[in-house]
């Protein structure tokens, strides 16, 4: 049977059936898949992990995604919004520790006060790091004008997961209303690309109602959308969310974990020069889950540098790791673990995906 996998792995562009077969690979077969992904990673992006210091600065959210622990409808969560000073201190921490980049992430808001504040924070974050820190933002769906303002203020990468590229499945995990519109999310991704952001998307893996076909289509979607970055992680149920009622239909956590590693490996083979994140949710299942993802083709790590006091309230899913560890403590243990995975750390570098430079060059030629 390994021969079938070996043959698929020789193909430049695996088709949907090939991808499904790879997703179903057994213990022996998946060793071939991971080895191939590791070789592609080494050749196209190098054995290097780049840091993005993750600042989850607020859990205030206007949306009601059925899977997420900080959805507006969950009244058990204590809401927080860190001060500008705390956020900028976290940026300074990342800069002084040579992280190269930070990510600002929060619940979704589109009010004027929020938009203005982010713009100011981006400008200040650049100022206090002498223009050196790379900034990714992950602040949900916004108007093109807002995206433009934030881009001009200093953000150059954006993460907006499509969550599922299958419209029917999308509406099983979101309310069907104006605030959770599949087409709006697609348009947001197109807007980001058109504005010149390095654009990242991704999905959750192991969702209720999700099957192998959906996952294969997700990978093909990333490819056809020509994204620069992907972050995919296992879905982890949260007891205060509507999807929790389907917990008995889910794959065991270890299988969701393995499926995520396979998705990462297949994607690395399909999109050789993009950035792929080792999602934090992997670590909630396996303490060295993210390092395993690095071995399977991922090259981005997002150490959590949110001030510790707020971490317990940013629980998108349960058992979130490191909620009581300080940022530097996390950094030390991380460095040792990444060394075991065989990667070097791209200290002080932005670590932009080579894919982005090529996409930009192509756009300029047209
Ligand atoms: N509000 C922004 C960013 C914060 S949420 C947004 O939604 O884009 C960041 C990501 O967390 C989401 O894209 C989703 O994929 C992930 N997430 C939310 N709930 C989760 C859960 N229960 N298990 C795993 N990932 C989850
Ligand atoms: Fe809000 Fe993002 Fe959670 Fe949806 S996934 S409820 S937008 S924080």
Q: What can you tell me about this protein's structure?
A:
This protein has 366 residues and is α/β, with parallel strands linked by helices. It is 47% helix and 12% strand. It has 15 helices and eleven strands. The strands form two sheets. Strands 2, 3, 4, 5, 6, 7, 8 and 9 form an eight-stranded parallel beta sheet that branches. A three-stranded parallel beta sheet has the order 10-1-11, covered by helices on one side. Helix 12 runs parallel beside helix 14. It starts with a helix and ends with a helix. The mean pLDDT is 94. Iron/sulfur cluster binds next to loops.
Question: What hetero molecules are in the model?
Answer: S-adenosyl-L-homocysteine, iron/sulfur cluster
Helix percent reads 40-55%
User: Which stretches are low in confidence, meaning pLDDT under 50 for 5 or more residues running?
Assistant: none
Tally of strands? 11
Task: Report mean pLDDT, rounded to a whole number.
Answer: 94
How many alpha or pi helices?
A: 15
Largest sheet: 8 strands, parallel
Q: Structural class of the helix and strand makeup?
A: alpha/beta
Outline:
globular
Pattern of helices and strands: HHHEEHEHEHEHHEEHEHEHHEHHEH
Radius of gyration, in Å, reads 19 Å
| N-end to C-end Cα span | 45 Å
Q: Assess the beta-strand content as a share of residues.
A: 5-15%
Compose a concise summary of this entry:
47% of the residues lie in helices and 12% in strands. The chain has helices at 2-10, 16-23, 27-44, 84-96, 112-128, 144-153, 167-173, 182-195, 212-225, 253-270, 280-285, 289-295, 308-311, 327-341, 354-365; strands at 48-51, 53-58, 101-106, 134-138, 157-159, 198-201, 204-205, 229-234, 275-278, 300-301, 344-345.
